[in-house]
Write a structure and sequence with these properties.
alpha+beta, 4-stranded mixed sheet, 21% strand
Length: 229
């Protein structure tokens, strides 16, 4: 019974991650980024299907690197969603063996997710995944600190999604607030260090779990990093 309970909890967690990924996808340009080489120069364009007809949208050369990075982030997101959905397909079959209806369980999860979205909406309008993330956003907003929530961070061939990317006086800081134990995050932090991102300099890491960050804790951390005075 405990194994079944753990499976259901993981099923819910993976479903929630799929919901979040689906909400993030419209942030990226539709279609596929392609390359055209003419006269020894590379040109980039988005191609998409509209009513059975291929439509191209050319990318300005000055925007090419940013578009390539965004496309890479989009592909990483699609890959993660596909892997999650494949896992869900396998687990649905297991749930049926236990006499549990996956459709009913998914509807309950969707209802929980929608209620949670309303609970963790920030003063600026983002929907965060937990109370601590909501409080971090509200404090940043209150102090006029520019930030992005769950913006892709592209390090060579890997894409990460720090909780917050903070821009302060032309410097960039990253705030990670993983919802669970820090152990599975170790590879991420090794990559961060390799690219000059580490705690005490430009990386803030706070532990998730059952307890939530208080606003006084968030202010203290921002003061320690000299983001506020």
């Amino acid at each position: 019974m405990n194994d079944l309970k753990r499976l259901i909890n993981k099923f819910r967690s993976v479903l929630f991650s799929v919901y979040r990924m689906e909400e993030r996808l419209p942030e990226y340009p539709p279609g596929t980024l392609a390359t055209l080489i003419q006269h020894d120069r590379s040109y980039y364009y988005w191609t998409r299907n509209e009513n059975g007809r291929a439509v191209r949208s050319y990318v300005k050369l000055k925007d090419a690197e940013e578009m390539k990075a965004r496309y890479q982030a989009k592909m990483q997101l699609l890959k993660a969603r596909k892997e999650a959905e494949q896992w869900l397909i396998r687990v649905r079959k297991t749930l049926l063996i236990y006499g549990i209806s996956p459709e009913v369980l998914e509807q309950e999860c969707r209802n929980q997710y929608e209620r949670q979205k309303m609970l963790f909406k920030t003063d600026r309008g983002e929907v965060t995944t937990c109370l601590s993330e909501q409080r971090i956003a509200n404090v940043l907003y209150r102090y006029g600190i520019d930030y992005e929530y769950r913006a892709p961070l592209i390090l060579k061939n890997r894409v990460y999604w720090p909780s917050y990317t903070i821009i302060h006086e032309k410097e960039v800081f990253y705030w990670e607030h993983p919802s669970r134990t820090l152990m599975p995050q170790q590879k991420k932090y090794e990559d961060y260090l390799r690219y000059g991102i580490w705690q005490g300099r430009n990386l803030i890491v706070t532990a998730g779990g059952h307890s939530s960050l208080e606003e006084t804790d968030i202010v203290r951390i921002l003061t320690a990093y000299r983001l506020i005075t």
